[in-house]
Amino acid sequence: MIQAHVKAFLAILLIAQVHGIMFFLEPNSHKCLKEEVHANVLVTGEYEVSEAMGQKANYVIQDSKGHILSQKEDIPHGKLLKFSFVTETYDTFEICFISRVPNHQRGIRQEVTLITKRGIEAKSYEGIGEAAKLKPVEVELKRLEDLSEAIVQDFARMRKNEEEMRDTNEATNTRVLYFSLFSICILFGLSTWQLFYFRRFFRMKKLIE
């Protein structure tokens, strides 16, 4: 039973590391996709743009500060192309596909296929095995070792996020408590002031002694 749960978790983790999407790019338009990625993570991708005579398609990958990580102009149509980069900090990354159509041409929409991988799924273990002259079993063990490290890092990251959220909740509760006490003191002070004010007013009008 435990082994089955572990295998299911590994499968979910692998799925989370791979993203595939297909969409249509209208003439003279652009479409962008955003994704949050942690620091020191290898990100690779494969993309293909369908053929359209006389039209150009470009793509660019940027971080939240506008730094260009990868780009290509006039993408060859109908060819599977690749890109890769390594993140330096935890950030939101954006990949945009842009369509360019001459003014004298009406243009047609193009189909864009994009597959991105990150972390251990982005590594080429076949290439690593060939370079290090490893056996297939050793390559698989290497992959499982990296996968285990990724799981440990994910759990550590989740625990850190949980602690940060708990600290934030505790700080918020403390601020709410202090604000409530301050509000009560203000209301008490205003009530006391009104009491003395009306008492003085009624005495001046000789309504009370």
Descriptive report:
- The protein has 209 residues and is α+β, with helices and mostly antiparallel strands.
- It has 2 domains: 19-124, Jelly Rolls (Sandwich), CATH 2.60.120.680; 133-208.
- It has helices at 2-17, 125-132, 136-204; strands at 18-25, 30-37, 42-49, 56-62, 68-72, 81-86, 91-100, 110-118.
- Strands 1-8-3-6 form a 4-stranded antiparallel sheet. A 4-stranded antiparallel sheet has the order 2-7-4-5, with no helix packed on it.
- Helix 2 packs across helix 3.
**Secondary structure tally: strands:** 8
Any idea what the CATH superfamily of the largest domain is called? GOLD domain
Quickly count the domains: 2
Indicate the CATH topology of the largest domain.
Jelly Rolls
- Largest pleated sheet: 4 strands, antiparallel
Give the CATH class of the largest domain.
Answer: Mainly Beta
- Global morphology: elongated
The SSE order reads HEEEEEEEEHH
Which percent range describes the beta-strand content?
25-35%
The low-confidence parts are 1-16
Q: Percent helix among the residues? A: 40-55%
Strand order of the largest sheet: 1-8-3-6
Q: Terminal Cα separation, in Å?
A: 85 Å
* Content-based structural category: alpha+beta
Q: Please state the average pLDDT score.
A: 82
CATH architecture classification name of the largest domain: Sandwich
Organism: Acromyrmex echinatior (Panamanian leafcutter ant)
Signal peptide: 1-20
Membrane topology: Single-pass type I membrane protein
Subcellular location: Membrane
